[in-house]
Prior knowledge:
Elements: E1 3-4, H1 28-40, E2 50-58, E3 64-70, H2 90-94, H3 97-115, H4 118-153, H5 158-217, E4 220-222, E5 228-230, H6 246-257, E6 260-269, E7 279-280, H7 284-294, E8 317-321, E9 325-330, H8 348-356, E10 360-361, E11 370-376, H9 379-390, E12 395-402, E13 410-414, E14 417-419, E15 427-429, E16 438-445, E17 449-455, H10 462-470, E18 490-498, E19 505-509
Parallel strand pairs: 11-18
Antiparallel strand pairs: 1-3, 2-3, 2-6, 4-5, 6-7, 8-9, 9-11, 10-11, 12-17, 12-18, 13-16, 14-15, 16-17, 18-19
Helix pairs in contact: 3-5, 4-5, 6-7
Amino acid sequence: MFAAFEPQPSLADLPTRMPSPFATEPHPLARRAADEIVRALPAHAAAEGKMFGALVVRAPDGRVGYLRAFSGMLDGAWLVDGFVPPAFDLAARDAFWPAGEAELAVLAAREAELAADAAHRALAELRARHTAALDELRDAHRQRRAARHAARDAGGDDHALAQQSRGDTAERRRLDAAHAEELAGLAARVAELDAEARAIAARRAARSRELLAAIHATYELRDARGQRRALAELFDAPPGGAGDCAAPKLLAHAYRLGLVPIALAEVWVGGGPRIAGACYPACRGKCGPILAHMLGGLDVAPPPVFGADAIDPDEPRVVFEDAWLAVVAKPVGLLSVPGRSGALRDSVATRLRARFGDARVVHRLDLDTSGLMLVAKDAATHAALQRDFARRAIDKRYVAILDGAPAADAGAIELALRVDLDDRPRQLVDPVHGRAAHTEWRVVSRAPTRVELVPRTGRTHQLRVHCAVGLGAPIAGDRLYGRAGDRLMLHAEALAFMHPHTGKRVELVWPAPF
């Protein structure tokens, strides 16, 4: 399981302190270990995409090598030759989980049986027939009512016409009573089925919570000093799969064997939403609290804080300004608005409030994106421009350089997006729960591939995900969806809108710096 490097690295090849697992680029030695893992995997491994991890370690005899791990299970197994075991106590889990899983399966099967009971369909069909009969009767009554109105206008017998009206009312009551009688037994049966289904769903949910708590109890995570903490202590509510990523597995096993962690890399293998063979930082949602504990006692570099770099105080430059609004050119590395935690205050909004007083950004650009941003100087202008954005009446055009080459020269991408709850701010393609997102694109030049992108919706990271997944070619320098580089090669180049006060169309272009 411990694979020693051959030849052994020199002292100069080793990091002076362990790099942060959340850094965008792994240490070269960890990258080397990750590449060796990828080369050793069979061609069919993780065809749908999986994260593998390599932890560079020093053995008690001084040799330097690495451990290998995979995220979650591999081909349905927790234990695979050559890879570290899970971070939990497998024997303790096996003592209750198979029986618990079978119990949940029985409950789920009964829920499905209740939902499929023929009474549900019979009730729906009966109600549909009743609705059709009632609609037919209403149409007949409307025709009769119109005839009575015409008869009254022609001087007909009011008493006879009133009798006809009362007859229609009685007919409706008889139909309603007949329908209620028909429905009674079937509706009662369906109510019984629904009540049982709700009771079983509640039992299954309660049992799932009990089993999940028992699963969490099988994780006892230690740090380099030997201090142990339960998984449940590290979260308010541990997310699904917490503790099963490659990094916690690797650290847990290194400590079991008395190995000293030196550097970590996680590499994506197979298809899916990431680039095969590319290294990615550890996820912050599931792994952040765990690694913060497990790395205790090691000399580890702090995780990177994106948005904390010093930016020229004269930025952003003003491209257009009048009494009501301004358009500025945001540089890479400057937030559009202050960070949610409050730790990062420097932003376009903060700087422009210092210049213009009540300045409010109308839309945002990602931290890593440069280009044109629209800013309102007062609340009324801000509201008017926001309405225009909602109506998609403001046009934006971006330019990007891709890490790859789409086969076509132009097209449209429609992929619904939602946030990755375990790895914010990453976004995921989710056709069921995602929000609709639409991008038009065309190739401007090739080698490298330069494209124009026109977003018709404004979802977070829309262009980045649409290029990475929709075109199969992430934007160059994309540390989240592609390969990290000097900068994200994405720039908001053109902006056009109708001025809310003058009524004139404003069209601006700020060429990309690449």
